[in-house]
Design goal:
Layout lengths: L1 H32 L7 E3 L5 E3 L2 H41 L1
Antiparallel strand pairs: 1-2
Helix pairs in contact: 1-2
Amino acid sequence: MIRKILFIFLLAVYALLLLFYVGLVVPEYLACTGCMYEGEKGIDIWGSEIDCSGESRAVGEGFFQLFSIVVSIYSILIIFIIYRIRRSKLNTQRY
């Protein structure tokens, strides 16, 4: 029972993390990938104007890389937990 509650909590946190990543981090990163000159402005998929100057572009790229790693590790963790739950269900059904 506690495993299921913990799993549902992890899925809820994962859903919020994924929404933040896909809704804010990725569009800002992609808006600045096409900018070549200092001080250029990019437009994300939501229509917001993004400042793509050197420092903010570097911070945005670092933020994108950090969140990519966090989302990847969290995805692996969720997949592993699903695997363990299904494996334990199969082992209990055999006996």
